[in-house]
Design a protein that fits this description.
The protein is of the alpha/beta class. Helix content is 39%, strand content 15%. The protein has 2 domains: 6-47 and 309-408, Alpha-Beta Complex (Aspartate Aminotransferase, domain 1), CATH 3.90.1150.10; 53-306, Type I PLP-dependent aspartate aminotransferase-like (Major domain) (Aspartate Aminotransferase, domain 2, 3-Layer(aba) Sandwich). It contains 14 helices and 17 strands. The chain is globular, with a radius of gyration of 21 Å. Residues 41-43, 109, 132, 186 line the site of D-malate (MLT).
Amino acid sequence: MLKINQNYLKLPGSYLFAETARRTKEYQAAHPEADIIRLGIGDVTQPLVPAVVEAMRGAVEEMGRRETFRGYGPDFGYDFLVNAIRETDYAARGIDIAYDEVFVSDGAKCDVGNIQELFSSDAVIAVTDPVYPVYVDSNAMAGRAGEYADGRWSRLVYLPCNAENGFVPPLPESRVDVVYLCYPNNPTGTVLTKEQLKRFVDWARENGALIIFDAAYKAFVTTPGIPLSIYEIEGAREVAIECCSYSKTAGFTGTRCAYTIVPHEVKGADENGAAVELNALWKRRMATKFNGVSYPVQRAAAATHTPEGQRQIKSVIAGYLENARVIREGLQAAGFTVFGGVDSPYVWLKVPEGMTSWDFFDRLLDECRVVGTPGSGFGPSGEGYFRLTAFNTLEKTQEALERIAAWKK
Ligand code: MLT
């Protein structure tokens, strides 16, 4: 019989959002009359904006005509999208990204999950805690996380983020090869200032470490001075790979498009200690395992970079940020301690004394018919916290908060 990858057997239970979905489905089946409001997984509810729909429709029509039909696209993205990314997301903010440093893909989740293929099997990985589970699980699947016991992996370095340290991760105290940072943060909804991010860039440069910077939520930043890209920090091109996504920026969770920046300066060592560009390795990996994002989807993504597209997606994001305000202020008025939700679609709250995160999940579902995500699902330091998303409609969000406030009384 085939010998399987044993690392899969070490993974605890199911993927976090699969587990919350399973419990919700079970509850709905047992209570068919329950009008459940979903503030759990960060999935968008607003439709694609008109500029995107128009671009996608035009591209589909091109695909239906012999003279404009296209087969396989370029492995790393069509010129029109790669250049739109370089110009509007970087050059417009004074950041120079070369054409062949942009890799268009079908999702930041895939990129942050796949990037670990470039690391040696004994690389030491640090994650902020709580953390988006994909960074942890993908390294665990590759055998880099060690053993799982009491909610922790033995070979991972956890950088706790909590109310006591203002959700600012401490620098690793032991040798680490790679650190994953996601800002604005999923799940806490908090941000890092330029100075706080610079400490990590400086540390990575001094220690020969790599930063995987997940910027999937950058479009939600409204506070002046908060970095939208790690490349705003001097020296970051030497040590950071940045993953960006259209999922939350432009409502592409079901449409699928993202991009990752791998600067030529980012290097790792081969077995003789010689420097190797990660850009070359990522090119090799993508060309081998990926056939590109479909033409209509890339046209749709490019439409978000036009002035009209920008105006339209910003208006949708403003709506989600308004929901975040409703959640934040509603929870505060009900007596909860809350964090995040200002430059982020996520609000992170402290669960009432004496309850675990999963207790709170069950009570909220049963007594308010509201679904959220238990903090402990994001890591050991998430215990005692809970995440709500601002991605539902304003009406549903307001109703959820009314239910929670009435219940809290
Ligand atoms: C989340 O809820 O954390 C995200 O939706 C998950 C994802 O983007 O994959």
